[in-house]
Amino acid sequence: MNNLLLNISCQDDKLKENTLKELSKVCSQCKACDLSKTRTSVVFADGNPNAKIMLIGEAPGADEDASGKPFVGRAGQLLNTFLIEAGIDRNKDIYICNTVKCRPPQNRVPSNEEKQACRAYLIGQISIIKPKIILLCGATAANSFIEEDFKISQIRGKWLNIFENIDTMAIFHPSYLLRNHSLEQGSPRWLMKRDLENVKARLSVL
Ligand code: URA
User: Is the C-beta atom of 170 inside 6 A of ligand 1?
Assistant: First the structure.
């Protein structure tokens, strides 16, 4: 499936919509890993499939599992606040998904095996959406694509060369920001604001 989807060229909006629907349908019945045994919903994605930005988070939490939509809980609400502040419209400018589509029990970090089992869906989404910008939101999303050891605080905010023709940036995960309230210069929230302003500036010239 991985290769097939990577080779799909979706010039046509209808074809894109149908291909995405088909992928979502396959994903909704997925039993490739044990997360399928404990999930309520498969959380495929939210937002605009024609958006230039794709944001990849870690995994659904309890609210996402219950609603079937990514980033709708407390972390999602904080993310929304940062997006609004940067002038990025969540419904229009972004397509949002996660490295794994099912909630890990107790919100633990998904294992490498679980990420691997879900990878074809993520690669499929990237191939179909063809974003101009990818935001790797948090260390789990970032280490799905960066092999070397890194600290998120060191790599965030830089434009990374990971995908051909897609400007990629790692940003802090909003769950981390929920535990760090300071707005002082240099604080995680201050850096998040600046990173998203950079993304907005890049978006406006694409
Ligand atoms: N955290 C994530 O990484 N993704 C979600 O969808 C919700 C919280």
Answer: no
Whether residue 6 lies inside any domain: the answer is no
Residue 13 confidence (pLDDT): 84
The answer to whether the CB of 59 is under 6 A from ligand 1 is yes
Q: What does the pLDDT average to over 77-99?
A: 98
Tokens of residue 167, six digits: 């400007």
Q: Which residues of 58-73 are buried (b: 16+ CB within 10 A; e: fewer)?
A: bbbbebbbebbbbbbb
If pLDDT is split at 50, 70 and 90, which confidence band does 12 have? confident
Look at the chain and report how many structural domains it folds into.
1
4 is a domain residue: no
Give the span between the Cα atoms of 167 and 136, in whole angstroms: 11
Supply the range of the domain harboring residue 191: 13-203
Residue 54: per-residue pLDDT: 98
Residue 77 lies in a domain: yes
Confidence at residue 10, expressed as pLDDT on a 0 to 100 scale: 52
Per-residue model confidence as pLDDT tens digits over 132-180: 999 999 999 999 999 999 999 999 999 999 999 999 999 999 999 999 9
The verdict on the CB of residue 110 being under 6 Å from ligand 1 is no
Q: Residue 174: which CATH number? A: 3.40.470.10
DSSP 15-39: HHHHHHHHHHHHHHT--SSTHHHH-
Q: How far separated are the first and last CA of the chain, in Å rounded?
A: 30
In a domain, 49, yes or no: yes
